[in-house]
Amino acid sequence: QVQLVESGGGLVQPGGSLRLSCAASGSISSIYAMGWYRQAPGKQRELVATITNGGSTNYADSVKGRFTISGDNAKNTGYLQMNNLKPDDTAVYYCHVLIGRLGARDYWGQGTQVTVSA
User: Fold this and answer.
1) What is the DSSP secondary-structure string of 63-108?
2) With contact defined as beta carbons under 8 Å apart, do 116 and 63 qualify?
3) How confident is the model at residue 63 (pLDDT cuts 50, 70, 90)?
4) What local confidence, expressed as pLDDT, does residue 67 receive?
5) Residue 114: its H or E element
6) Quick one: 44 exposed, middle or buried, by C-beta within 10 A (0-12, 13-18, 19+)?
């Protein structure tokens, strides 16, 4: 069994920064990939960023140049560094982890609120 615990959300002013964490615990052989999603009020869930176990990353156009996804394999923890935050970044952010060499199992974090407002 695997559980994901998210942390790091909060209230920041436009232009500020936050770092979200996603800590995995339980029966983990390896992490195939990790992604961050967000759900803003009145909008559908959006894929924000992904990273594979090989280190390849991908970002939504709306966050390119501002957000950085990374992972610490030794700690089984993923991160989303968010810089130059904008009001449109306000959303609940969810981490999603694919477990196993082939990513056969997937798990979701509980979500963490990010609010960007003056």
Assistant:
1) TTTTEEEEEEGGGTEEEEEE-S--GGG-EEEEEEEEESTT--EEEE
2) no
3) very high
4) 98
5) strand 112-116
6) exposed
